[in-house]
Write a structure and sequence with these properties.
By secondary structure, this protein is an alpha+beta fold. The chain contains 7 helices and 13 strands. It has a 7-stranded antiparallel β-sheet, with helices on one face. The chain is globular.
Length: 302
Amino acid sequence: MSFNAFHEDEYEVYDARLTDGRLADLDLEQYAVDTQPDAPPEGERWSSWDGATHGPKPRPDWVITDLGAVEADLGVLKTGKEADVHLVRRWVPGSPDRDVLMAGKRYRSSKHRLFHRDSGYLEGRRVRKSRETRAMRTRTSFGKELISGLWAFAEFQTLVRLWGEGLPVPYPVQMSDDEMLMEFIGTPDGQAAPRLAQSRPDPELLPGLFEQLREAMLRLAELGWAHGDLSPYNVLLAGEGDDTRLVIIDWPQVVDVIGNPHGPEFLERDTRNMCEWFTRRGYVVDEGLLFGDLVAAATSRW
């Protein structure tokens, strides 16, 4: 759609406000809302950018914020206990260079989530009202809704912080009530990057990949956190050859290593899961040494 017109049934429909020469006095954002058609010219829905909570600045160049953008759901990338991840395309009609794929994480409602792991992870997290704390602890319907929201909000906020700290995580584009849109890790044609558990990287790459993992875990520990559910299934292998890199995903259960009484246990399990994978691939690493370094990094803040 051009600035002063849009095409409808092959006829140009102009806004009368633009004929008197007072363009400088026009509220451009309100104009875009007033003249927007009832349905998107392409795709399944208008862009969900407006009204969502946005990711950190400076934003990557590929993030599309145009009010005239449209979106389409291209299918499911992954199903999980707490959420399903969809492939979402957002583009600006008529602008071939404004077209991007994103991963849309849609969180399940309290009625369709599994809460068997929540109690251990939630220790150390706080909500303001004692009534809410009791409801979460006793798993009332209200409490489960609070937990669902807490998980979703925690993951978005965590990604915002970790992206800002330079850790290898997807860029968090936006958060709405039940969906988080984030950077799609994969190829331009929609092929998702493989999980580390499903990959067979060249043995020559293993030392470099382990060093990437070690640096990420150490930086996370310095912030006082553990992933809480880190395994080769929550690490993506992106790129090829010397450009191969690890990207860590699935962060709703991030754990405060010191504030959560089970924090060291989660940290130790994360360490064991990852070290065992590298050892099975033929690159033997010292699990105890890495765990000791992580504990030292976490406790150095105190």
